[in-house]
Amino acid sequence: MITDKKQLLLITNKQSMVDCVQEGVSMHFELTQANSLHTGFNIALNLLPDVILLDYSSFRSGRNFKNIANFKSNHFLTKAWLVVYAEERFRAEAESRFRKVVDEFIYSPTIEALCGKIIKMVYSNRSLSNFWKDAFMGMFNLISKPVLLLDQNEIVAMNDAFKQSFRVRNSKGLKLTDFVKCENVQKVKDSLRNFARGKHIKAATKTTLLLRNDKLRNARINFSKLNKNFGHQFVMFIDFVEKNEEINDGIGTSSEEVENCFKQNSQLTEFKFTNREKEIIELLIKGYKTKDISEALFISPKTIEKHRSNIIKRTNSDTILESIIYAISHDLIDYQKVQ
């Protein structure tokens, strides 16, 4: 998410420090906190912060602090300002160990003074703009084909070509699954999850996308991860194609799991509830609780919960109530029978 404020990633295991820094920099920075270097590194790859502030006293041991070099070795984070906050008595120790990989050490006596120094950095001659993020966003709208920046299913950013093709005015809160038919939502989520978790850096596939005027268009899609170690965020390029046009498998690396999943998405998905699922839905409509259903159908509460979970998943719902409404509105059960 792009805001007028700078992004500050604070890595500390002290909640008191988090609270003080939050209060001290809130006018100038969006604060994100991590309690370990490992977690902080993954967050940094996703957030691309302007400043990464590490609390030396939280991770002073060599074992806990040895991975600090990872932050500056990753090209997406080379423009982030890496700052270590330490007590004055640890100055020699900290600088002898980490001088080569840290941009600045701060030995302020109080957290308030620390916050003041960080804020001054924003207005100093040092540019804290994130080069990679700025460069990417600068080129984003020059691409003539629809392009998305995704954090798995969440749309982080979309270019002008995407907005025009899909007639999007307000992109806030949109997800990729908002542009597929409702019966394919779960399969799309699964394919994105598979790609994020898999070893492939690139994937190519073909599917059908839903435009805002309720028309369908076949599309060839190429995914590319921003970083092989953090697979949740990637770029998605869309190329609208005719029905008879096939993907060129020789381009990039093709992920079979993603491709197979999206092939299924392009087909209309029709399903019916099993007889047992219908029985459970009908009893739920009548107001039966789990215990009542268990006694009526002679099955265990655990089995009933499993059926409820399957019903929710298959209808792409968040609650069993939404699933019931879906079942009634799509004539998947005989509502008259349970009235």
Order of strands in the sheet with most strands: 2-1-3-4-5
List low-confidence stretches.
243-255, 265-269
At CATH level 2, the architecture of the largest domain is 3-Layer(aba) Sandwich
The top level CATH class name of the largest domain: Alpha Beta
Largest sheet: 5 strands, parallel
Strand content: 15-25%
Radius of gyration: 26 Å
Derived from helix and strand composition plus strand pairing, the structural class reads: alpha/beta
N-to-C series of helices and strands: EHEHEHHEHEHHEEHHEEEHHHHHH
Overall mean pLDDT stands at 78
Under CATH, the topology of the largest domain is which?
Rossmann fold
Number of E-state strands: 10
Overall outline? globular
Helix content: 40-55%
Structure commentary:
The protein has 339 residues and is α/β, with parallel strands linked by helices. Helix 1 crosses helix 6 (111-122) and helix 9 runs antiparallel to helix 10. The strands form two sheets. The protein has a five-stranded parallel sheet with strand order 2-1-3-4-5, sandwiched between helices. Strands 7-6-10-9-8 form a five-stranded antiparallel sheet. The chain contains 15 helices and ten strands. It has three domains: 6-128, Response regulator (Rossmann fold), CATH 3.40.50; 133-240, PAS domain (Beta-Lactamase); 271-337, Arc Repressor Mutant, subunit A (Orthogonal Bundle). It is 41% helix and 18% strand. Residues 243-255 and 265-269 have low confidence and may be disordered. Residues 266-331 form the HTH luxR-type domain. InterPro entries: Sig_transdc_resp-reg_C-effctor, Tscrpt_reg_LuxR_C, WH-like_DNA-bd_sf. This is Helix-turn-helix transcriptional regulator.
